[in-house]
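REVIEWER CHECKLIST
Item 1: Sequence provided? yes
Item 2: Single chain? yes
Item 3: Sequence as submitted:
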Amino acid sequence: MTTIKDLNITNKKVIIRCDFNVPIKDDKIVDDTRIKESLETIKYCLENNCKVILLSHLGRIKEKKDLEKNNLSPVARHLSKLLNKEVLFSETTRGKELENIIENMNFKDVLLIQNTRYEDLDGKKESGNDEELGKYWASLGEIFINDAFGTAHRAHASNVGIASNLPSAIGFLIEKELKALSILERPPHPFIVILGGAKVADKIGVIEKLVTKADKILIGGGMAFTFLKAKGYEIGKSILDEESIDFCKKILKDYDAKIILPKDFAVSKEYTNAQPYQEKDIENLQKDEMGLDIGSKTRKLFEENIEKASIVMWNGPLGVYEFDKYRKSTDIILKYIVENKIKTILGGGDIVAAATTAGYKEKVYHASTGGGATLEYLEGKELPGIEIIKRK
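Item 4: Structure as written out by the authors:
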């Protein structure tokens, strides 16, 4: 795999595909984790006297009203502060205006181009990996560096398209991701997996891949109820992924000793943060109730299973994390992992956001910037944004 250090980038125009898909509220960055993760690669290019051209998507663009809320200009301003230098910004994704900015760039200048998905408004040219768009963006630079692990599982014009037309390599962020996640190919034992989140369907591939490697898989979050329903329990109004019941039955039949399900839950009659809750064993859940977090008995059960783990892989929160009341178990288990120095990989997405909110992200072995890309990597799927570079 070609990395940025394998290429001679000195005095070159370098295009870097970053992942600046960050939450923005009232024109302010709410969580700048992904921006900070890109700094090492950007600074390395500046140290090598490059003209640095940055590309990223932000949100989804389906209609014109999506353009304003997914404008990347707040990211350019925030990046200027982090780099302590002006970051140029192009309001357009192609055309003479953009080309003039690049033509007038000095070495060690940084330019951020407007949201790549603005190109999706006219025939999904970005997310459809339009050949002409990929060639056009490639024509703006001399070298391409992909450092956006979060979109590596997508074949877009801004990763596969550009890489098809320029000398290419991965940046430091993707290199770090691949190194950390590769441990899970032959994990040390005991290897414990924690899976949360809402739907079993989103994790079928991961479960099938990891159940043969893991010593135990601890199931929390909304997806636990589909497994419990498959075992015949009354789950009341709790979330149910009905289409995945047969899959759960098969996994439980084949690997019953490996699958650890919750014993109790924080239970309420309403899906809200306002109503009081009580802890109930799964056997006592009523038809008009729903589980919104795992309970204290389950937390103890989970801690007993991860106590002696050589490595833990965790994807998805254990409760409805957007409600303060139901983030308790996720935070407690995160704290337990950190305090007991258990080597843990957080598998991207919501669990990394939860760890960041709780102040534990920097204290775990690895917090992936992925999400969908991390899950597909763990499933053993090829990631197009990385494969195109691997094959060159």
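Item 5: Key structural point noted by reviewer: The chain has two domains: 4-175, 186-378.
Item 6: Recommendation: ____
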